[in-house]
Amino acid sequence: MGPPQARREKPRVSAFTSANIDKILALQPDLVLAFSDLQADIVADLVRRGIDVHAFNQRTITGILDMIRMVGAMVDANDRAEELVGSLETRLAEARRRAECLPERPRVFFEEWDDPLISAIGWVSELIEIAGGTDIFADCRDRGAAKDRIVTAEEIVEGEPNLIIGSWCGKKFRPERVVARPGFAEIPAVRDQDIYEIKSSLILQPGPAALTDGLAELERIIGRWAASHAAHVE
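Predicted structure:
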């Protein structure tokens, strides 16, 4: 994952959970940045080869903003980092204000994975609420590991989400699989065909993109639901 320009112009040396150590070494990096326990083996291999590595583990919006500040400090770009953080904080505040104008907040199930079913990681759950929704599994947001955010189909049905938003990291979201699950036919989101995808590159990478492109997608989906729901009420 990363900015489209970087994906086009820079050599690909790593996926999320695997890396070509020799290709990384060939670049002679001064510093390698990593994320979460899922990259622990990559980090260990690089450290053993004498490379300086900093592993982040941010799981919340505050954590993402702190990460930006820390990277800025590490590369002597404090002013640029603070400027970016300020612009992101302004964007978040504006989204909150827009959400306050919504006549009703939809109940949202964000599906990070389908087998097993995994609910939203911390920053995504927070963004759902900032954009005007209610995460039906908000109580899971502080559980950093995906295995600790596994939910059941029965719990989703009981949560009666108005919106189902899928973002399957590494594979295409398949709404037809969602609607075919036992009991899902009576879920408001399925009944009203309010099932959407947000590309994982926009919302599941723990950096600025989630707070810009990811938030914008959530606002678009929730705003569309709110407008449609208000029309039906009238």
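Summary: The chain is about 50% helix and 10% strand.
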